[in-house]
Design brief:
single chain, mainly alpha, Arc Repressor Mutant, subunit A, 6 helices, 2 strands, elongated
C-alpha cells in the first residue's frame, strides 16, 4: 500500500490553493482555507522554494506564489520537492533491484512503478484545479 504523508498532502493542497488564486497569497489565508498547520506549511515552503515551485516574499505584506505556470507543476514534482518516497515497493524506488536475476516480480513491479511515475507526471496543478472547479 502506498501511504502518502500529511506533509505531501498539505503541500499539494497549498499549491492548488495558490495556483487557483493566481497571485501572491498570504500564508495565513492558505492555512485557514485549507485547514492546515501554519508550522507545517512554513516547514514545507523552503523545500518548495528550493525546488523552484514557489517564490516566497518574506515580511509584512509578503506571502507565496507559484514560480511557474500550474501546467508545469506535476504531482511528481511535489513528491520530489517534499522528499516523499515514490517507490511502490522498496525494490522499485530507484527502478533497480540487485536480486533481479532470481526474482519473479522485479519486471512487473518495475513496469508498475514506471506507470505510476508517468501518472504522477501527467497530473498537474491546473488539471487538479479544473477537476475541483467543474
Amino acid at each position: 500500500m502506498i501511504k502518502l504523508s500529511q506533509t505531501w498532502d498539505d503541500a499539494l493542497k497549498a499549491l492548488c490553493y495558490i495556483a487557483d488564486r493566481g497571485d501572491l497569497v498570504h500564508i495565513k489565508d492558505v492555512v485557514e482555507s485549507q485547514g492546515m498547520s501554519e508550522t507545517c506549511l512554513r516547514r514545507i515552503i523552503p523545500d518548495l522554494h528550493k525546488a523552484g515551485i514557489i517564490l516566497a516574499k518574506p515580511g509584512r505584506g509578503g506571502g507565496v506564489m507559484l514560480a511557474k505556470n500550474p501546467e508545469k507543476i506535476s504531482i511528481y514534482d511535489v513528491f520530489l520537492a517534499v522528499g516523499e518516497e515514490i517507490g511502490i515497493t522498496d525494490c522499485t524506488k530507484d527502478l533497480y533491484c540487485d536480486k533481479k536475476e532470481n526474482c519473479y516480480t522485479t519486471d512487473v513491479l518495475s513496469n508498475l512503478q514506471r506507470g505510476f511515475n508517468s501518472l504522477l507526471k501527467m497530473q498537474t496543478l491546473d488539471k487538479i484545479i479544473k477537476n475541483k472547479n467543474s
